[in-house]
């Protein structure tokens, strides 16, 4: 992709610029009155989002992440699609699908009436994708950078037959220290504990992290909150088109084994993913579409609701 041409077609003054990023990937750099952000055109992946009034990034991005064609970038908001987790058909296809390791198309950019910056990226089927997944589709990701970060993934079925998908925003949040973090809003829900032989368990109270965590929570309704004491902030997650939340931290052993994480990176990251996964499988009819949305907002004000969410029902 030609950076000069991308800027000519889609650049917006000082507010939105295309630059050559790590590994030669085209990056979109956004800087408006409300926030700054970096988006990789490869993988259609938000890598950075920092509100103007916050000294810390919302997102974790590994310093040893791979920036190579065919590899996933560790951090930010990878897109898992058209399946979440291992290949559902056991054919040896890559985990989490194939859209997080392909270049997307820049469809349009703009400035909303409220001053937010908008970017729409798109991806459609090709002979290569149909050899992996035998369906015709049109995928678009609408990104809005303002006081919050808003993502909307739209799947359009352009095939002549229905297809089924699972998917996720596999979001890596930056945290001050994993021992001082709690996830609120999942109390009383059943989850699949993939770190414990996929056993079924019931969440009691807030989710705290003291070992490897890999959980798929079912029937998730309403908002989730990441309470981060070390950074003195809360991250509010509001989602749509999803009944599943995934909470993941690799902990020390897996972090040390991963070439694209530092040994102690597990202390600084927490994935809370908006997903359709496990039993939450989406059927999309021909000429129909499905919307998955997530909004991430940093909050610092004291809220009575926080104590309500922390207390078991």
From TrEMBL:
What do the Gene Ontology cellular component annotations say? cytoplasm
- The enzyme's E.C. designation: 5.1.3.15
One GO biological process term: carbohydrate metabolic process
Q: Which Pfam families match?
A: Aldose_epim
Q: Does the keyword Isomerase apply?
A: yes
The Swiss-Prot or TrEMBL record annotates one GO molecular function as: carbohydrate binding
State the UniProt keywords alphabetically: Isomerase
The record ties this protein, via InterPro entries, to:
Aldose_1/G6P_1-epimerase, G6P_1-epimerase, Gal_mutarotase_sf_dom, GH-type_carb-bd
**Catalytic reaction annotation:** alpha-D-glucose 6-phosphate = beta-D-glucose 6-phosphate
**Top EC group:** isomerase
Per the Swiss-Prot or TrEMBL record, the active site comprises 170, 273
* Family of the protein in this entry: Belongs to the glucose-6-phosphate 1-epimerase family.
What protein does this entry describe?
Putative glucose-6-phosphate 1-epimerase
